[in-house]
Amino acid sequence: MAARLRMTPAPEAPERQPDDALQTSETPSAATPAHAYLARLAALHDEAAETAHLANLLGRGPLIAGLLGLGALATAFFSIRSVSPISLGTWLILVTIAVAAIARSYGQAIEAPFDRAALKTFARSLSAILLYAGAAWGAGLFLALPDSVGLAGTIAFTATVSALAAGILRARDMAFSFLVPATAVGAFCTLMRDANLTDALGILAGGLLVAAAAVLLDRLMTAASRAELN
Question: Has residue 68 got a pLDDT over 70?
Answer without folding.
Answer: yes
